[in-house]
Amino acid sequence: MKRSKVFLLFGLFLSLMSGFVKAQPKENQAGYYHMSIGKFEVIALSDGTVPVNAKELLNHDAKIPDLLAKQFLSETVETSINTYLIKSGTKLILVDAGAGSLFGRQHGGGLINSLRKAGFKPDEVTDILITHIHLDHTGGLSNAGEMLFPNAMLHVNQKEIDFWKVHEKESPLDTRGIKSNRSSYINFKPYLKAGKVLAFKSDTLLFPGISSHEYAGHTAGHTVYELSSEGQKLLFWGDLIHIAAVQFSGAEIPNEFDFDKLKAAGQRKRAYADAADKGYLIAADHISFPGIGYLRSDHNSYVWVPVNFSVK
Ligand SMILES: [Zn+2]
Fold first, then answer.
1. What is the per-residue pLDDT for 107?
2. Among the residues of the chain, which ranges form H helices?
3. Cβ(164)–Cβ(174) under 8 Å?
4. Which domains does the chain have, with CATH numbers?
5. Ion ligand 1 — residues with CB under 5 Å?
6. Are 47 and 83 in contact (CB under 8 A)?
7. Per-residue CA distances from 102 to 5, 13, 68, 97 (Å)
8. CA 145, CA 190: separation in Å to the nearest integer?
9. Strands of 204-207's sheet in order across
10. Which of 80, 94, 89 shows the shortest CA–CA distance to 43?
11. Distance from the CA of 180 to the center of ligand 1, in angstroms?
């Protein structure tokens, strides 16, 4: 065998060996996704994913196993925690702040990393729109009392603050939803103390092209935010839906943490019908990342149509 061939084979052997031996350090998936809505840029930012037992979350409804199987999912659904950044001329507006450390070390808490990877710093965020005060939406606002977005003003429905002012202290009458979400108010409070919260009443124009709509049910002041520009529209749904594989076919199926289950189901139905009828984009905190897409009505249920992927 010629010497050059021997070297070639040896080189090939070495490269194969290195491929087998060196395990690549495992990094999380890219946590951001850009798109534009008229003159605004919207960037989906992943806070992470968390395994959720769909049966336990959705009240053990009999339809759950079949609906999950149709989507090739098992009972434990790896569920996205999405947040969104709206970039306008002078403002950098975050919609929700993820779970922070409140779901433990393994789940959630990736927002700041996703934000940095997308090219922004936490202190550049000017405003945060809060859909509601729950673990996976306001947990990421603070860490041990320190504001993680020190220059941001928070915008929230007054009813959310009123609710937690009443339930701030533990009571024997606390429901599971109240007990498990109290720390989300604790992580919200540093902004209240610093005078950095602007509370609004139900439906309000917050910025040119950005308004709030009250969809109470999941919580007392659960809010959907609308972004409109140059004929395009996107609605940030917050927690109108948790497990898409189940709840797009069964809007009536309640979530364990819906504060008023009947009202929450009514709001889901109203939101689905409006989105399918008008054909605007939706961004949802717990639909598979980036959680942006359209809704199409199909007989008695709805079909989620994820936004078409683009590298730009
Ligand atoms: Zn949530």
1. 92
2. 3-21, 54-57, 64-70, 111-117, 135-138, 158-167, 176-193, 244-247, 261-278
3. no
4. 32-306 (3.60.15.10)
5. 136, 239
6. yes
7. 59, 48, 27, 12
8. 6
9. 204-207, 210-214, 223-229, 232-238, 281-284, 292-298, 301-306
10. 94
11. 12
CA of 16 to the centre of ligand 1 (A): 45
SS3 of 163, please?
Answer: helix
- Cα dihedral 296, 302, 303, 307, rounded to 10, equals 50
Which pLDDT value is given to residue 18?
56
Q: How far apart, in whole angstroms, are the C-alpha atoms of residue 119 and residue 226? A: 24
Residue range 68-83, pLDDT digits in tens: 999 999 999 999 999 9
Which residues in the chain show pLDDT less than 50? none
What is the Cα–Cα distance from 112 to 32, expressed in whole angstroms?
11
Residues 6+ apart with CB under 8 A from 138: 96, 97, 130, 184, 185, 187, 188
Tokens encoding 30: 């890219």
Give the Å distance between the CA of 261 and the centre of ligand 1.
15
Which residues, at least 6 apart from 69, have a Cβ–Cβ distance to it below 8 Å? none
Residues facing residue 297 across a β-bridge:
302
Amino acid at 301: S
Round to whole Å and give the CA distance between 87 and 69: 38
User: If you measure from the C-alpha of residue 55 to the centroid of ligand 1, how many angstroms do you get, rounded to a whole number?
Assistant: 16
Q: Contact 85/43 with Cβ under 8 angstroms?
A: yes
- Say what the pLDDT of residue 15 is: 56
Using the mean position of ligand 1's atoms as its centre, give its distance from the Cα of residue 284 in Å. Answer: 9
Q: Give the tokens for residue 230.
A: 């140059």
Q: How far apart are CA 12 and CA 8, in angstroms?
A: 6
Beta strands in 29-98 (DSSP E): 32-37, 40-53, 76-87, 92-95
Tens digit of each residue's pLDDT (9 = 90 or more) over 171-220:
998 888 899 899 999 999 999 999 999 999 999 999 999 999 999 999 99
